[in-house]
Specification:
89 residues; two-stranded antiparallel ribbon; 26% strand
Length: 89
């Protein structure tokens, strides 16, 4: 996931909602870092990934959720942490 910048500042989709994009990075343009050394969880396949200076065309990305047209603070929560709460449950 990446935050979209325009003229050096985060681009907003709606008030208080930055433009976040999920990016599809071509194989070989990233490095998988061997940083997961936790007893009992080796089979989880969790790793850190490093991506440096890779251009991703807009056609190889998508927004994880549409902008919310609400002034409620609850409606402006970032979508990814909200979704992760459900996945964890």
């Amino acid at each position: 996931m990446s935050l979209v910048h325009e003229d050096g500042v985060p681009r907003m989709r709606a008030p208080g909602q930055p433009d976040l994009r999920v990016l599809f990075v071509p194989k070989g343009c990233y490095a998988i870092l061997d940083t997961w050394h936790v007893g009992g969880l080796r089979g989880s396949g969790s790793h850190d990934v490093a991506v440096d200076d890779v251009f991703v065309p807009v056609d190889d990305s998508f927004a994880p959720a549409p902008p919310v047209a609400s002034t409620s603070q609850l409606a402006q929560l970032p979508i990814i942490p909200v979704l992760q709460a459900g996945i964890g449950a």
